[in-house]
Amino acid sequence: MNRKLTRSTVMAAKTSEKLLAVFHRLYARYGPQGWWPGESPFEMIVGAILTQAAAWRNVERAIANLKAAGVFSPQDLHQISREDLGRLLRPVGYFNAKAHKLQAFLDALYRDGHGDLARLLALPLPELRERLLAIHGIGPETADAIILYAAGKPSFVVDAYTRRVFHRLGLGPTSDAYEPWRSFFMESLPADASLFNEYHALIDRHAKETCWRVPLCDRCCMREICPYGQSPP
DNA sequence: GCCCAGGTGGGTA
DNA sequence: TACCCACATGGG
After folding, report:
1. Which residue's CA is nearest to the C1' of nucleotide C11?
2. Residue A4: inside a domain, yes or no?
3. Distance from CA(A82) to C1'(C9), angstroms, rounded
4. Which of A30, A77, A89, A99 has its CA 20 to 30 A from that of A187?
5. How far is the CA of A56 from the C1' of C9 (A)?
6. CA atoms of A134 and A40, how far apart (whole Å)
7. Of A150, A185, A207, which residue sits at a domain end?
8. Burial class of A113 by CB neighbour count within 10 A (0 to 12, 13 to 18, 19+)
9. What are the pLDDT digits (tens) for A109-144?
10. Residue A96 parent element (H or E)
11. pLDDT for A174-199, tens place per residue?
12. Within this chain, do residues A26 and A49 fall inside the same structural domain, yes or no?
């Protein structure tokens, strides 16, 4: 009588197998990626906000500016003027918008959390995610990056690269919307922060190095299991 | 010159 | 919901 249920369970198991197979191929090809760069959870959060639509190299420059100016702490960044902060953030682009976003995070931290970052990050995952998403400038990808890389909790991070790579592999939702993609990974993989951490980093590495907008299928480690690689349009 | 880079928020149909 | 645009610097 549970034929349908059984069937969907089997399908889910196959999806899970495929996702793990992709992971192992990526890991075999590229090795451990060591994400997220950053010396502290606070630095990871600042990086997560600053890297929105920006190259990581430029994020490093901006963080170096903040450190050189002696304002790289929640308290200092909360108190510095928007204008001064913007000047230090110039290298990341969108520096006014990002100064606003960074201070929106710090406003929330001081308003709701008394400036206690560790306490915020210690919240249970669903509540932490909800709190982060309520902050101006923190959308789902940045929220999940903070949860995964700064709080060490298993929230899968989806970005444009993820959609591109898995769309070509013939896996995942047809929609481009964020939540269906996140659910797809969360429901198909064990809730393991170190797995999510490495997987997301490997996807980005693969997209940057091989699965370009015009992909380099002849050098791809996924050739044998990727429908796109076997018959590009 | 042109495209892209580890997105998000606000506005409109 | 589904697009569109602003936000802006740096590198290939």
Report:
1. A55
2. no
3. 18
4. A30
5. 12
6. 23
7. A150
8. middle
9. 999 878 999 999 999 999 999 999 999 999 999 999
10. helix A95-113
11. 999 999 999 999 999 999 999 999 99
12. no
